[in-house]
Amino acid sequence: MSLQLDRLSSFPVTAFDAAGELALGPYREHLRHQIDAGPAAIFACCGTGEFFSLTLDEYAAAVRAAVAEAAGALPVFAGTGYGTAMASQFAAAAREAGADGLLVLPPYLVKPSQQGLLDHFKALAKKAGLPLIAYQRDTTIYTPETVAQLAQIPEVIGFKDGLGDLDLLQRMMAVAPELTYFNGLPTAEVTARSYAAIGVRAYSSAVHCFAPEIAHAYEAGLDALLPEFYLPLVKLRDRGAGYAVSLVKAAVRRRLTDVGSVRSPLTDPLPEHLEELDQILEQGLTVVRKAAAA
Question: Which of the chain's termini has less CB crowding within 10 Å, N or C?
Fold first, then answer.
């Protein structure tokens, strides 16, 4: 399978009700809004989707819902993580739910060796038999030599970079050009132009969750959104722990669909930060409206 990720992909949030339980109705509404906006792919139950807070049964139900809403119109990838044994269980559940592939999140808590990472992917490939995308970030950093070996595993088709070391990334691309590479940094639009300069044009967009018109306008070249929307959003994001997820979910909840709060140990943004979020969003929408009217 070849990933046609030459543009942005959607990483939807996972909806919970007032009691903190999985809410499939609002989740499916959110998914429909995402799919209708036209991303390259849906990545369900990943970082923005609070994979780390989902039980295996909830995860399977959410992935099934994403597959049903996509209805073959675009690929659905699901997150998987933790150690190899648990990651294999989630991988098998994603396969049974009809997912097209897996985003392999960094193993929990440990800093694995390069051989350990290779063994992890071999086990997941055998267990799930689905296309796999490696995710580099935090404690999980790959060497170019390991990436070259990963590329020899038929199921491994992509590499998502959340580190931001473009020198390292270019060396990986040189030894494994057959993989699909994309930018997985938080608020990836801020670095999208730099990644594009080395040939990586695809990226994950959390903004697409709550303002797809802004996300697609920036992708199309509306650079005025960088100082007016994205940079202020990043500044706000950095003011709270876990805001890379909770701020996005709050924006979805306030603007589009009631997807509920984040689950513990994450917390919702402070009221004053939500007011600032509303202002930043309105600034971005104003830029888009003015460009459309010009």
Answer: C
